[in-house]
Design goal:
alpha/beta; nine-stranded mixed beta sheet; Rossmann fold; 11 helices; 25% strand; single chain; GMP Synthetase, Chain A, domain 3; binds 5'-O-[hydroxy(phenylacetyl)phosphoryl]adenosine
């Protein structure tokens, strides 16, 4: 179902018109209300009047996570503190977290984009949505919660973790929609199997998964394991939270809520804007946000844009499934390795489970990559020869695709730590 037909199915002309008007208004607001942006714009020798059409966006300064940190906690807010009704903070692993603030209207926008996302996944007011994203400073729990309520669905606000409870609620409350990270969904599916519960016996039918990179192969594994259809929901706290974009029933990219967020793809080196189909860094400008409006925020997420019409009827531009983050890219002995490439390879191998970890280390002057992957109990036999065969097969595949030598360790079920939220796929001991 399309939740907001007029907004999600606009003609390109109408969208351009709306975005231009909103961009001009945004530039006025940040110029007058956020000293950081006024100084930046003055430094570039531009004034709000220089922004007349959409293409003028390239004249505007970029914003980075560091800018948010430098202005910690509330320095980039564009409204008086009394207008802020909620704050969230992102789960940064290094340095200070980034704090974001919402006005009442921002919370309405947030709920609206999440309602659109859930509807795109096929949820309706008839559904019971089990929200297993963490509640708290993280935007996942409360973000999906408000959107599901807006949709008119029933929310089950269980939050992350407590797997036994999750399973009990899936059974007793008959949840039809599950919202959590893909890695946790993979874990839940396995926990059901261990408990001897047939997922087909549960009413669960839709998964709304995001907050971390995951491949199509992982989607298929989870869909098979839980007997559901899984959708990819993308977002980041700085822009609003979950709901910036979502896949539709055609599963060919994620529709961006363009009436609220203008996307661009840039070359992260030259900072130039790239055309459709070219992979680069995603950049967003928040054109309706009041509390913390951002100009050209550099997400570090790698994707590409596609303006071609989609069979679902939505006209909003699609972004390709996130390929990884530019800062996730590992450089091992000079070769670029993306954790997502490793995931695709592993999940293509029937004996491998969707639980793996990459450990990068330095022995002397040489970087090493160790890949640990859990092997299905059925294959983890005592027969050394059989296991050795699987080992050789996976190692060969990894090395031929990645182009570097790999230390492969096949481990037993439940060896790799499970995560209730975002999975930690890479341990880089070189930087410790
Ligand atoms: O992860 C918001 C969110 C919550 C999205 C629930 C989806 C579901 P942050 O904690 O600020 O916000 O982290 C944002 O997570 O820049 C991406 O690198 C990554 N990310 C989020 N969604 C996806 C996705 C939330 N669907 C950062 N695919 C982003 C790949 C994702 N990466």
């Amino acid at each position: 179902m399309i939740w907001n037909q007029p907004r999600e199915c606009m003609s390109r002309d109408e969208m351009t018109h709306l975005q231009t008007a909103r961009l001009k208004d945004l530039v006025q607001r940040v110029y007058h209300n956020v000293p950081f942006y006024r100084t930046k714009m003055q430094g570039l020798g531009i004034e709000p009047a220089d922004i007349q059409e959409l293409g003028d966006i390239v004249k505007l300064p970029f914003t980075t996570k560091q800018d948010l940190r430098d202005n910690y906690p509330f320095g980039l807010f564009a409204v008086p503190k009394s207008e802020i009704v909620r704050v969230h903070a992102s789960s940064g692993t290094t340095g200070k977290s980034t704090v974001v603030g919402y006005t009442r209207k921002d919370i309405d926008t947030f709920s609206e984009v999440v309602a659109r996302a859930l509807a795109s996944a096929g949820a309706t007011k008839e559904d019971f949505v089990q929200v297993a994203y963490g509640y708290g400073l993280f935007t996942g729990g409360l973000g999906i919660h408000y959107g599901a309520e807006k949709l008119g669905a029933a929310v089950i606000p269980v939050s992350g973790g407590n797997t036994e409870k999750q399973i009990q609620l899936l059974q007793d409350f008959g949840s039809t929609v599950l919202a959590c990270t893909p890695s946790y969904a993979a874990y839940l599916s396995e926990a059901l199997e261990d408990a001897g519960i047939d997922p087909a016996s549960l009413p669960l039918r839709i998964g709304v998964f995001g907050a971390e990179p995951w491949t199509q192969a992982m989607r298929q594994k989870i869909e098979e394991g839980l007997k559901i259809t899984a959708f990819d929901i993308y977002g980041l706290s700085e822009i609003i939270g979950p709901g910036v974009s979502i896949s539709c029933e055609y599963q060919d990219g994620l529709h961006i809520q363009e009436d609220h967020f203008i996307p661009e793809i840039i070359n992260p080196e030259t900072l130039e804007q790239m055309g459709d189909g070219v992979t680069g860094e995603l950049v967003f400008t928040t054109i309706t946000k009041e509390g913390l409006p951002l100009l050209r925020y550099r997400t570090r997420d790698l994707s590409s844009l596609n303006h071609a019409p989609c069979q679902c009827g939505r006209t909003n531009v699609r972004m390709a499934k996130i390929f990884g983050r530019s800062d996730d890219m590992l450089i091992i002995r000079g070769v670029n390795v993306f954790p997502s490439s490793v995931e695709s390879i592993l999940l293509d191998i029937p004996e491998a489970k969707p639980h793996y970890q990459l450990i990068v280390d330095r022995k002397g002057t040489l970087d090493t990559l160790e890949v640990q992957v859990e092997i299905d109990d059925r294959f983890f036999s005592d027969e050394v020869v059989a296991l050795e065969k699987i080992h050789q097969k996976i190692k060969h595949k990894l090395e031929s695709v990645l182009g570097i030598s790999v230390i492969l360790r096949l481990v037993e079920h439940n060896t790799i730590a499970r995560s209730e939220g975002k999975a930690k796929r890479v341990i880089d001991r070189r930087s410790l």
